[in-house]
Amino acid sequence: MQNSKAQNATEKGCKIDMEKLKNDLLLQAAIGEKTERTPVWLMRQAGRILKEYREVRASVSGFKELVQNPDLAAEVTIQPVDLLAVDAAIIFSDILEVPQAMGLPYEMIEKTGPTFRETIKSESDLKKIHTANINDLKYVIDAISISKKRLDSRVPLIGFAGAPWTIFCYMVEGKGSKTFSEARKMIIRNPTLSHQLLETITESTILYLKAQIQAGANLVQIFDSWAGILGPDLYREFGLRYINEICDAIDEVPKTVFAKGAFFVRKDLKNTNCQVVGLDWHTHARASRSIIGEDKTLQGNLDPAILYGSDDFIIEKTTEMMRSFEGKRHIANLGHGVYPDTEVEKVKLFIETVKEYKN
Amino acid sequence: MQNSKAQNATEKGCKIDMEKLKNDLLLQAAIGEKTERTPVWLMRQAGRILKEYREVRASVSGFKELVQNPDLAAEVTIQPVDLLAVDAAIIFSDILEVPQAMGLPYEMIEKTGPTFRETIKSESDLKKIHTANINDLKYVIDAISISKKRLDSRVPLIGFAGAPWTIFCYMVEGKGSKTFSEARKMIIRNPTLSHQLLETITESTILYLKAQIQAGANLVQIFDSWAGILGPDLYREFGLRYINEICDAIDEVPKTVFAKGAFFVRKDLKNTNCQVVGLDWHTHARASRSIIGEDKTLQGNLDPAILYGSDDFIIEKTTEMMRSFEGKRHIANLGHGVYPDTEVEKVKLFIETVKEYKN
Q1: Among B44, B48, B188, B324, the residue to mutate for chain A (most A Cβ within 10 A)
Q2: Of A88, A98, A107, A258, which is the most exposed, with the fewest CB atoms less than 10 Å away?
Q3: What is the pTM of this model?
Q4: What is the CATH number of the domain that holds A220?
Q5: Domain assignment of residue A3, yes or no
């Protein structure tokens, strides 16, 4: 059966490695195989919602120290599998490791978030950076290898990277922003320079994801957190184009594209060479299905704030969400990362509700 | 002609006062009258883009001092009419004057933005606040009266308020936020308390807008800056419902609803008792028209970042934007407030391009 599934996957334009996973629901659902139930995991499941994570985090001096310690990163990667019984692990890391490996280090500043001392604004700034050397990301690759060993084929491991547009936003702006108007100024004032930078990020991202896959990642997700800040035309030119380049370059494993806020390019995503499209909690599953068509798996999309509710409310809203996907190709998740102050019992209830849901 | 227009407006569920405006294009377009050209103004036109504004701003100790000084507020309100030749003035003020008049003062902190020392989190916190006393907003009303006098009927004056949901976000969260997860937690954990607070904000807003109209505002706009943070169901219950209450309570002048990011309730806005619906730059005019129907005027929606571009680029994109509205009921604007570092010559070019556009 594994072999015929792998065969199917190859025909569908992606290979699934021959590793015999005890639970491969996520990969089956990703490539459009019927599954006995809908697989479920949460964005940011490896994180502050778990006291076991907070203990590990407290044992090191900062967030970056944790990301760069393969042994501890693997430990927190696996925690949600043990503690929450999710159907996948996702490697604990940060999307900003890539610009750092390109020559632009960031600092994680309390309350401000990630901050770059230097930014890219001009032709001469481009000389500061280079295509990422994967050796400089070895700690992530090592964390994947260790995670795979410790997972012992229980569930798939998801690798990930930020989409080039989102990485570009941080490299130009230097930090988070409500409008990212510096990044948007740059693509408008200097499209050539912008495309050069986006191309270098794209090349780096492809190398990085391929190294993750080589180390054992069973599926990769591309996060475009700031997709929704651009209008449709500019997003097609400076955002989606590079996501497409990445998806076209990778055929080793299934790919998920999560372009947050980019409801306006759902019809374009239909033609993106990926198996899974992530939906945020603003986009309705039925409408998205009719735009994106039947050939993709949809992932999502409960409003993370719902998990602040009572048990009854969570069950009701999760069931409604499940129903909205109509039993078609679906991976259950939230519509964004779980909020750090969510009670772990509520997260478990969400997961159980998905697992018990019958179409 | 004025009289028959006013008659028409009354039939359409809103009155236009008998004031003989030299340029009433905005009001004509708002109520769906044919106009010789499309009217144009910009959100945040009274602000940092103008050196004349920056001079006035530098003459007082802070942003709040400017807002609370009727004479200076009127001066900066009128500047864009003189300097940019826009088809409307909008009173210079801040949406957070309302929560302040409800008993929750804010401070404008450099780089952090508006911050409330106290927030509303519990039943007992509700005792801190009350329906706004319009006397406590007298400086805005006075600024409107002075502006009207100085405008001397050249163009209409727009009044405005924040939508209850957006004001609620600030009152609960205490400051800006990427996720407003505290505010969202509150509506989910304590819907009764949330509705009480939203109701008090709504009552205050209705009183406030009526006082603005009494003082001479010719149209009012409701800004729901954080509409896009909720999913469709929650937005209907905690957002749109209160906008509808406000729109139903006001029939003195045309009303504009700008629910930023809330593409998912466009079909609901069709039934909102307003004449104009504002569009951000993510929502395409044609698609929005087909959802919202022919009975509303649409306002917007050039990406503000476009004004960072070359003259040719601005002309091209503005013309494209105009064309996308297909000569149907339209008020030209950006899809959000103009960015403060936009060159004033670029803003003028946008305005001229709209004025010269022929369907």
Answers
A1: B188
A2: A107
A3: 0.95
A4: 3.20.20.210
A5: no
